[in-house]
Amino acid sequence: VWDASDLSSPPLEKPNAHSSAIYSVAYSPDGSRIATVGDDGALRVWDASDLSSPPLEKPNAHSSAIYSVAYSPDGSRIATVGDDGALRVWDASDL
Fold this sequence. Notes:
By secondary structure, the chain is an all-beta fold. It contains no helices and 7 strands. The protein has strands at residues 22-27, 33-38, 43-47, 56-58, 66-71, 77-82, 87-91. The strands form 2 sheets. It has a 4-stranded antiparallel beta sheet, with no helix packed on it. A 3-stranded antiparallel beta sheet has the order 5-6-7, with no helix packed on it. The radius of gyration is 13 Å and the shape is globular. 21% of the residues are buried. The model has no long low-confidence stretch (mean pLDDT 95).
């Protein structure tokens, strides 16, 4: 995660955030959380100010790779779509 106002500063970084490739990230509307999805079928939600803290997660959100994640405009829901052909909408407060 780069600070857009100062690209010369080092980014916030979370190595091994997933067990394999990450395909999509989305900031919550208020900027406090970052949702990530990828090849491992997991949905993870991170504290945007502290990537070292454990994420909230749905380890088997889909049965295979998840390609996209998006927050609803009010931040109350998170939508995911995956290789299993499913669209899922999650209650963001229920992770």
